Amino acid sequence: MLELERVAHVYGHTPVFRDISCRAAGGSITLLLGGNGAGKSTLLRIMAGLTRPSSGAVRFSGTSGKIGHLGHSTFVYPALTALENLTFWRDAHGLAETGDGMLKILDRVGLAARAHDRAGTFSRGMAQRLSLARVLLLEPDVLLLDEPDTGLDAASRALLRKELLEARGRGACVVLAGHGVARDAPPADRILLLERGGLAYDGPASSFFSPPAERACCA
Amino acid sequence: MLRMTLAVLRKDMTLTLLRSSGLAQALLLGLLLVFVFSLSQGAGESLSARNAAAVFWLSSAFCQVLIFNQLYALEETNDSRLGLILCPAPIQAVWLGKAIAGVALLLLAQCVFLPATVVFLGQDLAGPLRPALAILFLTDTGMCALGSLLGALAQGQTTRESLLGVVLFPLLTPLLLAGTGIGAQAFGDADPDGPGAWLGLAAAFDAIFLAAGLLLFAFLYGGEE
Question: Residue B2: how many CB atoms within 10 A of its CB?
C-alpha cells in the first residue's frame, strides 16, 4: 500500500498543494485527475521519491518498494538499441532476466522486430512502448504513470490498458495521472481529484462518475 | 552496487566510443594545447622537462573536463537520470561507474598526449618509468573521482557547466603538482628527493576525493529540484 500523509509542496514561494492525505492499495488502479498545473506530476514524483515534499510523508507498506515510473520522460538512450536499453535497465536494477526473456517483453509491446534497431530511430509512440517494456521488465509493486498514453496510437493504448490490468491482477498498486478519463483508459478503482491546491475528491470511482462530478471534471 | 556500476561503465563506454563522436573533441583540445606550447620554442630548442610535464597534465585536465561533461550529458536525453535514481542500488554506483569510465577514457587520451608531448615538446622518456606509471594512475584516479562528482553538478545546465572548470581546477592543483613533479623526472629531470613525497601527496588527495565522492554524490545527483 502507498500512503501519503499531509503532503504539501511549494515551488519557491508558490504553493502547489497542501495537506494531501490519501492511500492507494495494492491490486488497485488509482486515477489522479486535475487540470494543468494542479500538481499531478509533482505528486507522482513525490510518490516515486524523485522530489522531496515540502512537508508530510510518503509510506510504503506490504511492498518491496520496487517502483516503476512511466511518464513524459522515457528514460530511453537513443544511441542504444531497444534490446541494449532493456539490458542496461535490467543490470542497473540487478534483475536476472535472460536475453530471451527481454525479447519476449519486447514482443509483448510490439517491438520484437525492432529489437536491434537504435531507439533514436523510433517514433515517440515506439519510444513510449520501449519505456513500457522497461516497466514490464521490472515488475514493480508500485507503478506510477504520468499521462502514459502521450503519443500512443489506439493499438498502443489498448496494449497499455491490458498491461495495467495485468499489473493490478498481480497485486501491484497502480497510480495513473491524467487530465480526464479517456474512453479506452483502464478502469479505475479509486479517483483522486486535485483542485485548487488540495484533494477535491478522494473516493471510489463508482461514486465519482455519478453526476454532477462527472460533468464538472471530466467533460 | 557493483552490478549497477558495471552497467553504467559498459553503457558509457559503448555510447562514448562506439556511438558518438567519441573523444575527438577532448583529444583535439589537449593536442592543441601541446601544439601551441611547441610554438613557443625557437628552432632547435626544447621545453624544460618540468614545463613539458606541466603541459601534459594541463592537456589531461582540460580533456577530463570535456569527458565528464560528455558522460553526464548522456543521462540528460529523455531524463534517464530519473531512471537511475529509481534503481535500488546506491546512487553512488553512478558516480563510480562514470569515474571508472572517465579513467579509461582519460588513459586513452593520454596515450595520444604522451607521444605528442615527446615529439612536439622535444622530450625523452629517460627517467624511471615505474613512479611515472604510479603517478599516472594516482593522478588520473583523483582527477576522475573529483571530475565525476563535479560532472554531476554540471549536468545539463550551461551556466553550471562553466562552473565545472572553475571549481575543478583549483581543487586539482595538488594532484597536478604531483603529476608534474614526477612527470619531470620521467622526462629526465633530476630530483634529489625522489618520487616518494609526490606519490604520497597524490595518494592522500585521492583518498579525500574518493571519500568526497561517496559522501556528496547523492546530494548532487538526487532527485531534488
Answer: 11
Q: Please give the grid coordinates belonging to residue A55.
A: 512537508
Euclidean distance between CA atoms B199 and B195, whole angstroms: 6
Q: What distance in Å separates the CA atoms of residue B66 and residue B10, rounded to the nearest whole number?
A: 19
Q: How far apart are the first and last CA of chain B?
A: 25
Instruction: Say if the Cβ atoms of A77 and B6 lie within 8 Å.
Output: no
| Count of alpha carbons within 13 angstroms of residue B17, beta-carbon side | 13
Nearest to B86 by CA among A12, A26, A94: A94
Asked if the Cβ–Cβ distance from A77 to B8 is below 8 Å, we say: no
Q: Which of A51, A75, A88 sits opposite B225 (nearest CB)?
A: A51
Using a CB-CB cut-off of 8 Å, the residues of chain A touching B223 are 45, 48-52
Hey, CA dihedral for B65, B71, B73, B79, is it positive or negative? negative
| Whole-number Cα distances in Å, A193 to A18, A47, A52 | 13, 16, 21
Tens of pLDDT, residues A33-42: 888 888 888 9
Q: Give dist(CA B106, CA B57) in Å, integer.
A: 11
**Closest partner residue to A76 among B78, B85, B87, by Cβ?**
B78
Model confidence over B77-106: pLDDT tens digits? 888 988 999 898 999 999 999 999 999 999
Q: pTM for the full model?
A: 0.87
Segments forming the whole domain that contains residue B50? 2-39+46-221
- Reported ipTM: the value is 0.86
Q: Can the peptide bond before residue A212 be classed as cis, meaning omega within 30 degrees of 0?
A: yes
Chain CA centroid to CA B87, Å: 27
